[in-house]
Amino acid sequence: MAGDVVLATEGLTKEFKGFVAVKDVSLKVARGSIHALIGPNGAGKSTCFNLLTKFIEPTRGRIVYNGQDITGGKPAQIARLGLVRSFQISAVFGHLTALENVRVALQRALGTSFHFWRSDRSLAALNERALELLNEVGLGEWHDRPAVELPYGRKRALEIATTLALDPEMMLLDEPMAGMGHEDIDRVSALIRRVAQNRTVLMVEHNMKVVASLSDRITVLARGEVLAEGPYEEVSREAAVIQAYMGSTHQGELRGRSH
Questions:
Q1: Which pTM does this prediction carry?
Q2: What share of the chain is helix, strand, coil (3-state, %, to 5)?
Q3: Do residue 177 and residue 253 come from a single domain?
Q4: Which of 133, 148, 167 is the last residue in one of the domains?
Q5: In this structure, are 217 and 97 located in the same domain?
Q6: How far, CA to CA in Å, does 199 sit from each of 6, 28, 154?
Q7: Is the CB of residue 240 less than 8 Å from the CB of residue 40?
Q8: What is the chain's pLDDT, residue by residue, as a tens digit (259 residues)?
Q9: How far apart are the C-alpha atoms of 245 and 45, rounded to whole Å?
């Protein structure tokens, strides 16, 4: 688990009253890569993500981040180590502007998140950094727009900006393209590629075209177990992977990208 591996698991398993949702998953995510966790519905992807970010505890196995065993850690502790899941701090406040939302996230990073009594002058000191983050995700010109008024794709970009406010070394993105149209998918894909230039990204994503274009490496889960791992173009050709997607809505895309 050393060297270029930033996040790794060994024998990660989760049982729910006799049902094995995740079984003996050993995962290695290379530092600086975009790694996708994919699989048909019910494959255990969400459970695996919840295990990695400590929203649920494993039945057995261990999780190591930057050489440190975090199996017994809590979500907030893990976020402070630099491993941040987007939805942990990405629930935007609809009545606040885009800039104010990012500023709240910056306050959280400083340990002053809930000090809403702080003076405007004190909060204004965070405005410059908040605007930098908004510009990084393409929302600079939307800085004074209430979050509730943002188009869906722009709101997801704001969520990524609030995640970036914690200055994560590794970002875990849970279905970042869910519910998006083609234009928003292209915009957010470009955003993920840009913010991943100096970070590691692990994402769960159902859109196979996005996975194929963004990922350096993928891990395929089926019935809670690792079915295959490697570059998309290689893994998508494997008979076992194609079989796992038989009957799923993604089968055509998976096979289409492999030829």
A1: 0.85
A2: 40, 25, 35
A3: yes
A4: 167
A5: no
A6: 10, 15, 21
A7: no
A8: 445 999 999 999 999 988 999 999 999 999 999 999 999 888 999 999 999 988 899 999 999 999 999 999 998 889 889 998 876 444 688 899 999 999 988 887 666 554 555 556 667 778 999 999 999 999 999 999 999 999 988 998 999 999 888 889 999 998 888 888 888 899 899 999 998 998 999 999 989 999 999 999 999 999 999 999 999 999 988 998 988 876 554 555 565 454 4
A9: 14
Structure tokens at 170: 């590794």
The tokens describing 55, both together, are 């929203």
By residue range, what is the domain housing residue 45? 1-82+170-259
Question: Residue 3's domain is classified under what CATH number?
Answer: 3.40.50.300
Instruction: For 142-177, give the DSSP string.
Output: GTTSBGGGS-HHHHHHHHHHHHHTT--SEEEEESTT
- Measured CA to CA in angstroms, residue 44 lies from 1, 68, 109, 138, 226 at distances of 23, 24, 31, 33, 10
Helices 127-136 and 152-164 pack at an angle, to 10 degrees, of 130
Do 5 and 50 reside in the same domain of the chain?
Answer: yes
Provide the domain count of the chain.
Answer: 2
Domain boundary among 150, 167, 184: 167
Based on the fold, state whether residues 72 and 147 are members of the same structural domain: no
Q: For residue 11, what is the DSSP state? A: E
pLDDT at position 119 is 55
Identify whether residues 249 and 179 lie together within a single domain: yes
In the block, residue with structure tokens 């990405």: 90
